[in-house]
Design brief:
The structure holds 3 protein chains of 3 kinds. Chain A is α/β, with parallel strands linked by helices. In chain A, 30% of the residues lie in helices and 25% in strands. The two termini of chain C are 38 Å apart. Chain C folds into 2 domains: 5-116 and 291-406, 3-Layer(bba) Sandwich (FAD/NAD(P)-binding domain), CATH 3.50.50; 119-287, 3-Layer(bba) Sandwich (FAD/NAD(P)-binding domain). Classes of the chains: A alpha/beta, B mainly beta, C alpha/beta. The structure holds flavin-adenine dinucleotide (2 copies) and FE2/S2 (inorganic) cluster (FES). Chain A: Pfam families: DAO.
């Protein structure tokens, strides 16, 4: 057991923790990251790699995504390792006229907000996607959406942060947080000893709730499970991301027209081609606690959904499948926030299905916040207090 | 032509008692024993290259021989991609080696 | 996909363990037993094995397998080949087994999936013509096709010597059996000293008389280092095998398939000697990296594991009666640790008694049979011609203790 010290201790070596470590180290802060397993061993290696604005509400939501997209393009040049970054845009496809109408409304609102959205008619879809089912009505495109390999991205942030002086402690558990007499952060207790520090960032993803409880704070972050299938290498089916619009229909107060299991498991098509000539097919959304077992029924349901949109997939072997736990919050926005009651305690968690997209902006504003600088975007809407108020109402 | 690699008489195990049948590999007409794995029939005719790596194009053959490693992937007409070390040979089978693929994402076009 | 099939006992793996279990249980009881295997024919790794017994008779796996299959056919056991299992789900009354031929519901489930080989990625190992030692065995002994005219074996261990001998019997020429260069794999296991230590375990089956007596002695007196340094540079002939402990493989060469290997002389601690590199023409290379239990299905089922190096890797926790910590789930054969086929068969008989005991048949009688079967496994292990590791009994005890802890 040893005792050491640091300016900032980050709990969690996922993409959020590593992005925060990178931006802090860049500002000259002395950072230690404590990770119970391997870097990117949590949700950040059990996900897709999309950096999306296409499904975000115009307003704060999409502004944050766009800021993050811009930062990622800068990171391509700043970071030490390549991470399969591409920005081919992404599309949503519609199965009915009703969806096309809703899509048109969505595109209009996004365009008013100044975002590069446009409708795609049946012909455009056909000419880009020769393998797409013939009955697809059309879709819409967001031209700036990009994609990365999330594991490489996390490691690239990690090695660059290390070069800038950050220390990474893997296979080390955080077991407690030490406060001084005034109730401010004084240190982090780990399975390998105490680290003295005045600043702690809780970037523990789906495990951030018990970390917050260590300082008596309740945050409503819950695991929302998702499954993904990996195809074997195959001839190209397409080069950019495709999702189904029907999943957004709930935003328009309409029900999805899908079978019972698809509804129950929250299955919606996410097609993501990778540079290795295979593709990822997702995904599902379920609240089943921390259970990480692959559910074959869900896998079959995702496969059926994928074949509905791309009939050729029937003949393409699946290599493997995996699942991950999205750190869900009730309003689908992350918590990126100082905790005023416990001076020196910060939270950067709860990014649900957008942690890869929002890692760059999260790391940037967290570093600015800790270093007492003005933040790139306002983090007021991301304050953890918003949930406390809600609880108060009940 | 090279001599077949078949062990026609094994001192302890004796002879194989299987029917000779015809099949094609990359269009070439060949003979093998009915029901033996595809990879075995090819090996008997000195054919070891079962596929080209999808990305690098380098030659690959069988590795484990018992279905564990997935190195022996070939295309069989009507069956799609199969493991050549497990899939029994049938009369008239049309088999194609696994091929290098162009990569639409990196933009590599040669195949 | 076919309809959901129903059975009382489903056995995954038609190797010596699975087939023995099926034959034993169905000989005694009216029980629906089904065996499935993804290989086109039943027998598992038994099909490729043969070795010389102490009395110089040959033990031929294919014959043993044929015998077991006949017993099973007679007893009405269904054996389905060419069917892969890819998923398992615990049900209130048994297990749902997901296969490439549809789902199967079973009350009891036995996993007897055997072992797989550890690959050794030496330079050039992806060239066609490079294969695992087990593949060379399967080609020559199961399908009776030579892996090539002239080969080289990389890796010195119990399995590589046993299979090398089988290849020679089949009329295949071997240019050498050597270690991979430790410049590439600087692990303890790849030094000549370690190889000698391994060889001393072959006891009676040791390929040369000096090793047979020398082996035991060396083990006792820790002479491996000395033997390794005395080992003749050009190797020795054992069982007509060109064993070369002071030579290491550097790389495998060829354009579209194996054309040659580059080897070099090494010191007893495995360092390459400058300027000693030479090329040997061969048309196949067999890599022997050792075996590990094939236990993915146990992991899918949710079994806890323990890493036990003497047994080859991660082992699903089970007790001496071959029960796992999960309801109605049993294991037998190499999935419980790497050993020879005769031990796997004894384990198969044991697990059959264990299942019938748990099913509540003739409890008294079965209890005695069960205890006898436990003893029999140990006896077979003790007298086996091929010993995979000297401390297997002790290593197994550690797993059994953990089982008690768990339940
Ligand atoms: C199926 C699926 C698809 C997804 N697709 C996308 C996508 O396309 N685009 C996108 O933007 N997002 C996507 N996501 C979401 C994204 O993966 C997550 O939001 C993101 O990975 C969360 O990162 P994180 O760093 O907060 O959490 P994690 O990566 O889980 O990191 C938290 C770390 O904290 C560590 N930790 C926990 N407790 C302790 C402790 N006590 N001591 C020490 N360390 C501890 C954990 O070991 C873990 O490594 C997807 C998620 C899933 C499940
Ligand atoms: C390549 C190789 C060579 C060997 N050679 C020798 C030797 O020469 N001498 C010696 O003493 N020992 C040898 N062994 C050790 C061997 O494992 C034992 O001798 C013995 O065969 C083990 O018996 P088992 O019944 O446990 O497994 P196996 O004989 O391996 O049988 C297991 C069976 O399960 C099937 N199976 C596995 N997974 C699945 C699945 N998911 N779905 C359906 N079926 C499945 C396999 O196809 C296989 O037929 C060798 C092992 C290997 C891997
Ligand atoms: S050679 Fe390994 S799966 Fe066929």
């Amino acid at each position: 057991m040893t005792t050491e010290s640091a300016d900032v201790v980050i709990i969690g070596g996922g993409i959020i923790g590593m992005a925060t470590a990178y931006y802090l180290a860049k500002l000259g802060s002395d950072v230690v990251v404590v990770e119970k397993g391997e870097i990117a061993g949590g949700t950040s290696s059990k996900c897709d790699g999309n950096i999306l604005a296409i499904d975000k509400e115009p307003g704060f939501d999409s502004q944050m995504s766009l800021e993050s997209q811009k930062l990622v393009t800068q990171l391509v040049a700043e970071l030490d390792e390549e991470f399969e970054y591409r920005a081919p845009g992404s599309i949503l496809v519609c199965e009915s006229d009703e969806e096309m109408e809703a899509a048109q409304t969505w595109v209009n609102r996004q365009k008013e907000a100044g975002l590069p959205f446009r409708m795609l008619d049946r012909g455009e879809i056909r000419s880009e996607w020769k393998h797409m089912a013939g009955d697809i009505h059309g879709g819409l495109e967001c031209a700036t959406d990009s994609t990365v390999n999330p594991v490489l991205f996390t490691y690239s942030l990690a090695v660059t942060a290390q070069r800038l002086g950050a220390r990474l402690k893997t296979h080390t558990w955080v077991t407690g947080i030490r406060l001084d007499e005034s109730g401010a952060v004084a240190g982090v207790e780990t399975s390998n000893g105490l680290i003295r520090t005045k600043h702690v960032v809780n970037a523990a993803g789906v495990w951030s709730k018990p970390i917050a409880q260590m300082v008596g704070i309740e945050i409503p972050v819950e695991p929302r499970k998702g499954h993904i299938l990996v195809s074997s290498r195959t001839e190209s089916i397409g080069t950019r991301k495709v999702m189904e619009f029907s999943y957004l229909m709930s935003k328009f107060g309409k029900e999805r027209k899908v079978d019972r299991l698809t509804e129950q498991y929250g299955v919606a098509l996410v097609f993501e081609p990778t540079a290795s000539q295979n593709f990822l097919i997702g995904s599902s959304r379920e609240f089943v606690g921390f259970d990480m077992k692959i559910n074959v029924e869900v896998i079959r349901c995702i496969a059926r959904r994928a074949i509905r949109f791309f009939p050729v997939m029937k003949d393409i072997p699946v290599l493997r499948s995996y699942c991950g736990l999205r750190p869900w919050t009730p309003d689908h926005l992350p918590i990126v926030s100082p905790v005023e009651e416990v001076p020196g305690f910060y939270i950067a968690a709860g990014h649900e299905g957008d942690g890869i997209s929002l890692a760059a902006i999260t790391g940037k504003v967290m570093s600015e916040c800790i270093m007492g600088q003005e933040t790139t975007i306002s983090i007021e809407p991301l304050h953890y207090k918003r949930f406390q108020k809600e609880d108060g109402k009940k | 032509m090279k001599k077949s690699l078949r062990i026609s008489h094994h001192p302890l195990l004796g002879e194989m008692d299987k029917k000779v049948i015809s099949f094609t590999y990359n269009g070439e007409k060949l003979q093998g024993l009915e029901g033996e794995p595809i990879a075995v029939a090819l090996l008997a005719s000195h054919i070891r290259v079962l596929r080209r790596h999808e990305e690098s194009g380098s030659a690959r053959g069988l590795y484990c021989g018992i279905g564990h490693c997935m190195e022996c992937r070939v295309q069989v007409q009507g069956k799609g991609q199969v493991r050549a070390c497990l899939t029994p040979l049938q009369e008239g089978m049309e088999i194609q080696e696994g091929s290098r693929l162009p990569n639409a994402i990196t933009g590599r076009v040669d195949s | 996909m076919s309809e959901i099939q129903q059975t009382d006992l489903l056995i995954v793996g038609a190797g010596p363990a699975g087939l023995s279990a099926a034959a034993t249980i169905s000989a005694d009881h009216d029980f629906r037993v089904m065996v499935i295997d993804e290989f086109p024919e039943p027998g598992g790794r038994l099909l490729g094995q043969f070795h010389e017994e102490r009395d110089h008779s040959w033990w031929i796996g294919k014959t043993v397998a044929a015998d077991l299959i006949a017993q099973n056919t007679l007893a009405g056991v269904t054996i389905q080949c060419g069917v892969s299992v890819y998923g398992l789900e615990l049900l209130p009354d048994g297990w749902k087994v997901l296969t490439s031929n549809g789902d199967i519901h079973t009350k009891y489930l036995l996993l007897a999936t055997g072992a797989a080989e550890v690959p050794v990625p030496v330079s050039g190992w992806t060239l066609p013509g490079v294969m695992s030692i087990g593949a060379a065995q399967v080609m020559a002994n199961v399908h009776q096709v030579k892996p090539g005219e002239k080969g080289f074996i990389v890796g010195v261990n119990v399995l590589s010597l046993a299979i090398a001998r089988e290849l020679v019997v089949a009329g295949i020429e071997l240019e050498g059996i050597a270690l991979p260069s430790s410049d590439l794999f600087a692990t303890e296991e790849t030094t000549p000293v370690a190889a000698v230590e391994l060889l001393t375990r072959l006891s009676d089956a040791a390929p040369a008389p000096w090793m047979r007596w020398g082996g035991k002695l060396a083990q006792k007196m820790k002479l491996s280092r000395l033997i390794a340094s005395c080992f003749p540079k050009r190797g020795v002939k054992v069982w007509d095998l060109p064993l070369q402990l002071r030579t290491a493989l550097v790389s495998i060469q060829g354009v579209d398939q194996v054309e040659s290997v580059i080897v070099a002389d090494v010191t007893s601690s495995g360092e390459m000697i400058e300027g000693s590199q030479r090329e040997i023409e061969v048309d196949f290379v067999a890599i022997a990296g050792g075996l590990y239990p094939l236990a993915e299905l146990a992991a899918l089922a949710g079994c806890p594991f323990l890493y036990v190096s003497e047994l080859g890797g991660n082992i699903p926790i089970h007790n001496e009666r071959m029960k796992t910590t999960l309801p109605n789930l049993y294991v037998a054969g190499n999935i419980t640790g790497v050993e020879g086929a005769q031990v796997a068969m004894a384990q198969g008989r044991l697990v059959a008694h264990s299942i019938s005991y748990d099913a509540g048949w003739f409890a008294c009688e079965e209890e005695q049979k069960l205890l006898d079967a436990i003893d029999e496994v140990k006896e077979v292990r003790r007298s086996a011609m091929i010993q995979f590791h000297p401390e297997i009994d002790e290593a197994r005890k550690r797993i059994y203790e953990l089982f008690d802890h768990w339940t």
